[in-house]
């Protein structure tokens, strides 16, 4: 029943449309031999980007017994913003969820059902208590994530994801247990046992000499070690990069980052791949630059964040961040991105604008789409299983134009992306050039068959409930 993203995208006729957002947005080729760029009319009213009538009046009802209400959507939003170790962690997920809920409720709710948010602040180490907040009342978890999402599976009544019969359309999933679990569908899949190679290939194009010797620096959490192993697999698949022994650091942070920076320098690395959050990253970048290290630094999407500049603009100068989302700086070109920004400013004036907020918004849009389709198919009755199945059935999903296309029901990562670079205290596009020869469509570079499989032991298995029917 599962569709295979690799097969779909590898077909010659789909190569361009793979990044052209066919399905929920439109694109037009503009350059012979080059890419395309999308022009979508400004969204208004109940539309979001290219998605029409996302929210509005209706007569949908939830199946009795699935949460504490049949007429309202009580939705849990996982986050860690109350962490004392890293205050504000994943705050953007909560902010984006508040923004979407306020906007959607103003339109009339999802098919008439208003959204009530349940704040599941896990504070990094209190995930079990956060799960207890949602277990009895929530119909679903949407748009959020825990940094230690493996802790959702406590095995206890009242706090375990599966025992509570919850479903989740998360902003992201990071651990093996969560990433390979059932009961959840990711709008931008991030399976722990696979990694796209497009961004490694592109990093070699951008900095061919520096990428010859690379070191990974990662935080000492099990979930971050998984990301490190994913990266190793992608590097091995691409080839041509000497992968030096990895270096770990305490996620609680360091008083002095100079010794860690010296380890990087002593390794002989000319490039660095960072796995962690933006504040710690900024401190290491400053220590490296202070010691005169000139290498290339590449980062995951979460470093596309104002906190990357928290140790000074010069410390961040030149760092690269890979993303499958359109940059905020180009919002005039991508209406869905502009709408995310405008809604956040309107409904959550002190909200944090960051890439994870856009990821959360895509999750909410996928949830709303699935709920509406379930109501239409089942006489206005919506069930958890139907929502999961309809979310998994979406193809070429772009969140209305927020990001490169994905197939949420297929556990393969997005094979399209781009790089932004830090320059003079701000972000700008680095690669590919819009409309250039490496723009496969909508400003993304796609390598349809570019997926590496992680063959090393990931240290855990997916938290699978065999009683849940397949999607």
Report on the structure:
A hairpin with a 6-residue loop joins strand 1 and strand 2. Strands 9, 10, 11, 12, 13, 14, 16, 17 and 18 form a 9-stranded mixed beta sheet that branches. Helix 2 crosses helix 11 and helix 7 packs across helix 8. This protein has 471 residues and is α/β, with parallel strands linked by helices. The protein is globular, with a radius of gyration of 21 Å. The chain has 2 domains: 194 residues, Response regulator (Rossmann fold); 173 residues, Rossmann fold (3-Layer(aba) Sandwich). The protein is built from 12 helices and 19 strands.
Question: In summary, what is this structure?
Answer:
With 471 residues, the protein is α/β, with parallel strands linked by helices. 28% of the residues lie in helices and 16% in strands.
| Gross CATH architecture of the largest domain | 3-Layer(aba) Sandwich
Q: What is the helix tally?
A: 12
In total, the number of domains comes to 2
The major sheet is characterized as: 9 strands, mixed
- Roughly how many Å is the radius of gyration? 21 Å
Q: Between the first and last Cα atoms, what is the distance in angstroms?
A: 8 Å
Give the arrangement of secondary structure elements:
Blueprint: H1 5-10, E1 28-29, E2 36-37, E3 61-62, E4 73-79, H2 91-107, E5 115-121, H3 127-135, E6 140-142, E7 168-169, H4 176-179, E8 194-196, H5 198-206, E9 213-219, H6 222-238, E10 242-243, E11 247-249, H7 258-267, E12 271-275, H8 278-290, E13 296-299, H9 313-316, E14 320-323, H10 335-347, H11 355-377, E15 381-382, H12 384-392, E16 416-423, E17 426-431, E18 445-446, E19 451-453
Parallel strand pairs: 3-15, 4-5, 4-6, 6-7, 9-10, 9-11, 9-12, 12-13, 13-14
Antiparallel strand pairs: 1-2, 8-19, 14-16, 16-17, 16-18
């Amino acid at each position: 029943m599962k569709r295979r993203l690799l097969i779909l995208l590898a077909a010659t006729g789909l190569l361009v449309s793979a990044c052209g957002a066919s399905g929920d947005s439109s694109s037009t080729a503009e350059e012979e031999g080059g890419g395309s760029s999308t022009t979508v009319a400004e969204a208004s009213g109940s539309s979001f980007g290219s998605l029409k009538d996302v929210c509005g009046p209706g007569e949908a009802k939830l199946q009795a017994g699935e949460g504490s209400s049949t007429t309202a959507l009580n939705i849990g939003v996982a986050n860690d913003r109350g962490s004392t170790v890293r205050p504000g962690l994943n705050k953007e997920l909560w902010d984006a969820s508040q923004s979407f809920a306020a906007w959607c409720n103003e339109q009339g709710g999802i098919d008439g059902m208003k959204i009530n948010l349940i704040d599941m602040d896990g504070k990094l180490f209190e995930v079990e208590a956060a799960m207890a907040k949602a277990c009895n009342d929530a119909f679903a978890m949407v748009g959020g994530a825990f940094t230690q999402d493996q802790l959702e599976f406590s095995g206890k009544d009242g706090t375990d994801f599966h025992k509570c019969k919850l479903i989740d359309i998360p902003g992201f999933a990071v651990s093996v247990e969560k990433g390979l679990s059932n009961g959840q569908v990711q709008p931008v899949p991030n399976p722990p046992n696979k990694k796209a190679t497009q961004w490694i290939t592109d990093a070699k194009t951008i900095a061919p000499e520096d990428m010859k010797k690379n070191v990974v620096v990662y935080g000492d959490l099990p979930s971050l070690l998984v990301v490190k192993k994913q990266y190793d697999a992608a590097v091995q698949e691409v080839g041509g990069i000497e992968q030096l022994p990895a270096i770990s650091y305490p996620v609680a942070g360091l008083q002095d980052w100079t010794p860690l920076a010296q380890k990087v320098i002593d390794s002989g690395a000319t490039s660095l791949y960072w796995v962690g959050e933006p504040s710690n990253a900024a401190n290491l970048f400053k220590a490296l630059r202070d010691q005169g290290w000139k290498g290339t630094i590449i980062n995951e999407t979460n470093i596309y964040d104002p906190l990357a500049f928290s140790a000074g603009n010069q410390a961040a100068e030149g760092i690269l961040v890979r993303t499958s989302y359109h940059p905020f700086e180009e919002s005039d070109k991508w209406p869905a991105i502009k709408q995310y920004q405008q809604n956040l400013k309107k409904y959550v004036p002190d909200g944090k604008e960051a890439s994870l907020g856009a990821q959360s918004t895509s999750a909410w849009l996928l949830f709303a789409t699935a709920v509406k389709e379930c109501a239409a198919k089942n006489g206005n009755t919506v069930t958890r299983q139907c929502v999961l199945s309809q979310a998994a059935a979406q193809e070429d999903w772009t969140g209305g134009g927020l990001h490169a296309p994905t197939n949420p029901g297929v556990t393969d990562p997005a094979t399209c992306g781009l790089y932004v670079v830090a320059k003079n205290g701000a972000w700008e596009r680095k690669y590919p050039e819009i409309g250039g020869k490496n723009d496969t469509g909508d400003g993304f570079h796609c390598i349809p068959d570019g997926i590496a499989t992680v063959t090393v032991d990931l240290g855990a298995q997916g938290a699978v409930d065999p009683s849940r029917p397949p999607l």
